[in-house]
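User: I'll paste a sequence; please echo it back and then give the predicted structure.

Assistant: Echoing your sequence first, then the prediction.
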Amino acid sequence: MVARPNKPEPRWYLRDGDHVDGPHPQSRLLQWHAEGRLSDSVLLSRDGQKWQRVRWPSRTARRQS
């Protein structure tokens, strides 16, 4: 049996107004949002060129889990 390496975590660029940062692992962005460090209006991009709005999981739902 051949062991398969774990699939790398998706990484995203973050844009908030004119500020662009990243790429960051998806888990870090979810954590920052859960902590209230990211606004609901930030945009994400895999390549730093094409931006999309984010549908964040509910902060209250994440706190209860």
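Helices lie at 26-34, 59-64. The mean pLDDT is 84.
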